Amino acid sequence: MADDGMLLNFDLGEAALKPQVKYTGGRWRDRSHAQRTAKGKPSLKSWDGANGTPVDKARPLGRGDGDDGNDIDGDRPVKRLRTSGETQGRTHKGGSDRTDAKSLSYMTGKLPPGSISSGSRQGNHQMTKSGPVTSRLFTSNPAQKTVFDEPTEDQEPTKPSNAPLSEEAENFHALGLSRRIALHLSSKLEMKAPTSIQKNTIPPLTKDDSDAFLQAETGSGKTLAYLLPIVQRIMALSHDQDGTSTGTKIHRNSGLFAIILAPTRELCKQIATVLEKLLRCAPWIVSTTVIGGESKKSEKARIRKGVNILIATPGRLTDHLDHTKVLDVGTVRWLVLDEGDRLMEMGFEEELKSIVGQIRKEDLKKQNAEGVRLDALPQRRVTVLCSATMKMNVQKLGEISLQDAVHITASKSDDDADAEVNESVFSAPAQLKQSYVIAAAKPRLVTLIALLKSTFARKGSVMKAIIFISCADSVNFHFELLRSLAASAASEDTSKTANTVADAAYITSPANPKISLFKLHGSLAQPVRTATLTAFKEEKEPSVLITTDISSRGLDVPAVELVIEYDPAFSVADHLHRMGRTARAGRAGKAVLFLQPGSEEGYIKHLQAPNLSGQSSDTVIEKGFITPISLPRASASDAESPVLESEKSPFKRAEALQLHLEQRLLESEKTGSKLLDSARQAFRSHIRAYATHVKDERVFFDITQLHLGHTAKSFGLREAPGGIGGGPSRRVIKGGQQKSGTAQKRKAAAHDSDDDIPKNRGTDKGDGMGVTDEEAAKRMRMKMKAVMSAASEFNIG
Description:
Blueprint lengths: L23 E2 L2 H11 L6 E4 L4 E4 L44 H5 L4 E2 L67 H9 L8 H12 L4 E4 L6 H14 L22 E4 L3 H14 L8 E4 L5 H10 L3 E4 L1 H10 L10 E4 L2 H6 L3 H13 L20 E5 L5 H10 L4 E4 L3 E2 L17 E7 L5 H12 L8 E5 L3 H11 L2 H5 L11 E3 L12 E5 L5 H13 L4 E5 L12 E6 L6 H8 L9 E7 L7 H5 L5 E4 H8 L4 E2 L12 E2 L5 H22 L3 H16 L17 H6 L17 E2 L5 E2 L3 H7 L23 H12 L13
Parallel strand pairs: 1-4, 5-10, 5-11, 6-8, 6-9, 7-8, 9-10, 13-19, 13-20, 14-17, 14-18, 16-17, 18-19
Antiparallel strand pairs: 2-3, 11-12, 15-16, 21-22, 23-24
Helix pairs in contact: 4-5, 5-6, 8-10, 12-18, 12-19, 13-20
C-alpha cells in the first residue's frame, strides 16, 4: 500500500554541522563583525579619517569608548573567533590540549566587558599598550577639516576704531556742551576728546528735538553720547551756556525729565554709575534706578522724594507705572531705549508698548508743579533708540517708539528719515585680535584649562579674562571644578560673594600663584550679582569671570584683555557683543572662540571676520602643559599645592589631568560634595542650550551630530547621563489647578529673574489658574516632542 505522505531527500554532505551561535553583549558593530566573521564574510568597511577614503578594516571585538574612556581600534584583521564546535582538537604550541580562557568565554557568543586587550591606537598620539586605567582623549575624535595657515610675523598694530578722537581736532565744548561740563569731563573724568559716535550724536540731540537711532560698535561710548545732551539741556534750566546761573532753581522735585530703559539689571547699574560721575558737576540733578530684585517700597520712597532721571528695566517700570501714583510722566521729555535689539529678543515688546503708550497718553506739561517754565527742554517727547544691529525686531521697535528719526552712526549722521536703511553689519573693534580653537569634545575641558594656564603664565600679560558659557548650571559646575578645594572647604565667609568668588586652581603659575575666580549668572540673587560684579571690577590681582550672556551687553569692566567663548553664542550678534567686553575705548584685546571639528567649522566663514586666525587644541595643550600642573590644595593648611608631574609630555599631562578630574567627581559622592550631580545637571542644560541656536545657524550647530558620550567627557563624566529631554516637573492638585515646584526657578531661567521678565516668558500663560487635567496632559505631550521647546527648561542666565 502506497504511503500518502511526501518524502524529501536532503544532501547534507560530509562536513559536520556547525552550531548557530548568537552573539550578544558588547556594541552593535562588534556583534555584526563577529557574525560576518563566523560566516566567512569580509568585515564591514570603515572610514579612514587619515586620507578620507573607505578601506576594509577589521575591528577586534569588545567595547569602544566605555566608561573609563579606553578606545579600542585595531589596525589589522584578527583571527576568526572560535566557536564551541571548533575549539575541540586544537592544540597550542606546547602541545597541550587546552583552550584559551577568553575563547571559552566566546563559545556562547557572549561579549563580556573588558574582554579585549587594548592594543596600540594610531591617532594623533601613541597610547600605552597596557597599564592602569587611563582617560584617552586623543582617540576616536573626528578629524578636523580646517587647515591652519603657518603663523606669520606680527604685523603693525591696527589703529583702534573706537578710540577717542584727537584732542587738537575735537573737544567737548566745541560740540555745544557748556564749559562746566567740558571742564568736568577733562579734569575729573580724564576725557579730553569725544569718540566718533559722541561727535556725531551730541550736536543734533543738543540742538534739535528729533528722535534718533544710534548705532555704533561696542566700547565706543554710546552711553555718554545720549547722557551728555540730556544733562546739558536740563542744566540749561538753571545755568547759561557759559555756566552762569539764570536764577531758576532746579532740584529733585522739579519733575521727571528722562527715562532710560535697559534690558538687564547690571547694565542699569552701570548706566547709573556713569551718570552719577557725570552729575557731580550738577549735584542738584538727581537720578535713581528701579530694577527687579530690589525693594519696591524703597524705590517708591525715592520716587516720592523726587527724581529727575530714572533708569529702569522694562518689567519694573511697567509695575511702577501701574501702581505708583506719585510717578508723574507729564514732564518726561526723553525716553532712551538702550540695547534695543536685546530688549526685543528678551520678549519685552508688550512692556515697551505699554510704557510708550502711557507716556504719550499724558499731556506734555509746559511747566512743572512749581510753575517753572520748561522752555529749555525739548518741546516734544524725544525717543532715542540704541542698537548694535538693524534687525527686523529693532525695526519693529522703531515703528513702535520712533517718529521722524535721525539715523546716527560712528561714521556719519543721516538726516534723511525716509532713506531706506538696509540691515547693517555690526563689526568688532579694529584693534581686537580674534582667533578660534578647533577642539574635539573629549579634550575640550583640558584645552580650556591649558589656554588659561598659558594665558597667566607670565606676570602682567593678562590681568582679567571673561569666559562665556551657555547656561547657568554649566557656570556653576565649572566654577566649582576650577576653584581651590581649600577655598570651597572654608565656611567662615558669610559675605554676599562667599559662593561666587574663590581662589582658582589648575591655572596658576609661579609668576601668578594667586588667581581669583568669579561666577555670575541670572539665577543668582540681585545683591549677590551686584556684589560679585563690583568685586570683579575692583580686583587688582589676575582674575577670571565665568558667566552667561547676562554679562555680554554694555558692561564696561576695566582691564579685561581676554574673552573666551567656551560655548559659542546663540547668534552672531551675541557673539559680537561678547567680544565687545574687551578692546574698549581704543584699548587692545583678544577674543578666542571654541569650535568642534565637523559642522561647527563652517561657522568660521559665517562670521565673516577679517584676519581671523585659528589653531588646534593640540597646539594649545602643547603650550599650556609644557610645565607641571598645580593641583588644588586639600586644605587651607597646606603650604603648597601638589603638582601633577608624573607625566612629562604635555599630552600625557592632559590625560593625567582628565583622569584626575574624573576621579575627583567620583570621589565627591563619598565626601558628600555635589560636584558629580552638578556635572550631570550641567551636561543636561548644556545639551538643551545647544539646541536653541537661531534657525539660520543650526546648520553649523546640529545637535544630531553632537556625540553625547564625548561631550560628557568634557564635563568630567565617564558616561552620558540620561534625562536630557525632561523639562520641569508639573503636578496637578485638587480643583484642576496646577502647581509647579520650580516656578520661581523657571522664571529666573529666562534671561533674568523676578519681574524683569515679561509675564508670558519662562512660564506658561495662565499657569496654575483653572487648568484641567486633560489640558495639562496635552501641554506636556507637546513639550515632550522636542528636546528643548522653551528657554525655561535650562538656565540661560
